[in-house]
Design goal:
With 242 residues, the chain is an alpha/beta fold. The chain has a single domain (8-238), classed as Acetylglutamate kinase-like (Carbamate kinase, 3-Layer(aba) Sandwich), CATH 3.40.1160. The protein contains 9 helices and 11 strands. It has a 9-stranded mixed beta sheet with strand order 4-3-5-2-1-6-10-11-9, with helices on both faces. Helix 2 (28-43) packs across helix 4 (70-94).
Length: 242
């Protein structure tokens, strides 16, 4: 048993991570595993906020590349994140975790609108808050939403749970067998080398607000708990003087 290193975290879950090996939709096994892991983190007194993506259902950029209006495609992607958020909420509550979903696009019948002070109040009460709908604006990724929400709620770290990748590499390890995994990086390394941890907007926001990013694999059970305890997993991105 370890001691949590962080008091308040933002967990960034991509839609692809929730899809598991299927690549599309929501994997019951994956979402159940994630819910159990989060329940263990909450039990250790850590405040957890989650930002979910929607790429397992709809990818706005891909639709835009095929001729759809980019803003229209991105709004559809925001709605996809709400589907994932509601599914995750259901799984968390089945294992006894009190959860609130807040959306950047109002849909009061299914979720609360995003209000910063209310989100912090939920976290202080031990509830998990799931942020859906991205930033509420087209042309911004859910990575940027994670960085923005982390800055707003003063999170200690962003935990980026990846599917099939256990950290940040010099190249795509699935395509280049010579790719080297990094244990630590600074923000300028990520930006100058285009390493793809987050998009440039999100990375810059984290750098400006001194929010470290831990990239790790969600495929290994209990990795979220290990990340919160500060165990050596994945790749940590932070300032040089951290």
């Amino acid at each position: 048993m370890g001691t949590p290193k962080y008091h308040r975290v933002v967990l960034k879950l991509s839609g692809e991570a929730l899809a598991g090996d299927g690549g599309f939709g929501i994997s019951p096994e994956v979402i159940e595993s994630v819910a159990h892991q989060i329940s263990h983190v909450v039990a250790e007194g850590v405040q957890v906020a989650i930002v979910v993506g929607g790429g397992n259902i709809w990818r706005g950029v891909s639709a835009s590349n095929q001729g759809m209006d980019r803003a229209h495609a991105d709004y559809m992607g925001m709605l996809a994140t709400v589907l994932n958020a509601l599914a995750l909420q259901d799984s968390l509550e089945q294992v006894g975790v009190v959860t609130r979903v807040q959306t950047s696009i109002e849909m009061r019948q299914v979720a609360e609108p995003y209000i910063r002070r209310r989100a912090i109040r939920h976290l202080d009460k031990g509830r998990v808050v799931i942020f859906a709908g991205g930033t509420g604006n087209p042309f911004f990724s859910t990575d940027t939403a994670a960085a923005l929400r982390a800055a707003e709620i003063e999170a200690d770290v962003i935990l980026m749970a990846k599917n099939g990748v256990d950290g940040v590499y010099s190249a795509d390890p699935l395509k280049d067998p010579t790719a080297v995994k990094y244990d630590t990086l600074n923000f300028m390394d990520v930006l100058s080398r285009s390493l793809g941890v987050m998009d440039a907007t999100a990375t810059s926001l984290c750098m400006d607000n001194d929010i470290p990013i831990l990239v790790f694999s969600i495929s290994e059970r209990e990795n979220i708990l290990r990340a919160v305890r500060g165990e050596t997993i994945g790749t940590i991105v932070r300032r040089n003087d951290a």
